[in-house]
Structure prediction request, 269 residues.
Amino acid sequence: MRIAFASAFAAGSIVLAASALGAETLKEVREIKVATAPGAALTVRTANGSIELVPTDSSELLIKATVSAKSKERLEAVRIVASNDSATGNDVHVDFPPVAKGEEEGCSLVIQVPRATNVKLVASNGGISISGTVGTASLETSNGSVTVKGHDGAATIRSSNGSVMASDISGTAAITTSNGPVTLRGALQPFQIETSNGPVQVTIAPAFAGVVSIATSNGRVAFPKDAKVESQSGNKGYGTAEAKISIGTGGEASSIRTSNAPVDVKSGS
Prediction:
């Protein structure tokens, strides 16, 4: 069974505000409630705005959408579409009117969702934030930061011109960004991290085991004193520095790559 709901109404008044879309941009806040397909995947897509998932005990999705446009007519043409289907999952996306010269719309979404499962979030010019999610997580944005606070499963994170801060991911983590720092805390499973012009800090969980390859084009690398050093070169604080270390027994390979910044791998308590 599929239930869909499209919204063009405002739960509050339209206000004039300054934003990245222009000095004079109209904004309004809309709120939508829609039943969820229990245990099904959740897909969310927007543009020129952020996405935040907030855990809730409710059986419904509560969506708070902040919509921006340069005219009342175009503001009213933006649609927030929410649907659920037991086969294909829960879907929330924003439909914008056709692009016109000098016109650009945006929408930020805060979604209260019960135990979000197998999430796929796509945004642009805005950050992504999740917590308390399970299954797989695919998070993609541009010109925005990504924050993960507790995810039970594997996560793939892609951004540009933004930082990534992730903690307590129980599965593997694949993180790619540019011009931003990366922080991964409580790493339990293999991870792959790649950034540029940003430092990387990884805190590994006590049960972590595996070989970690580290490289930076211009900076220092640091790692736990009890790690077994397989190879090491550079590490004078400037120029290329590389290291391959072994932590624990067994485990799969992990890697860290950055440029013009240091890398720090620490042991967690």
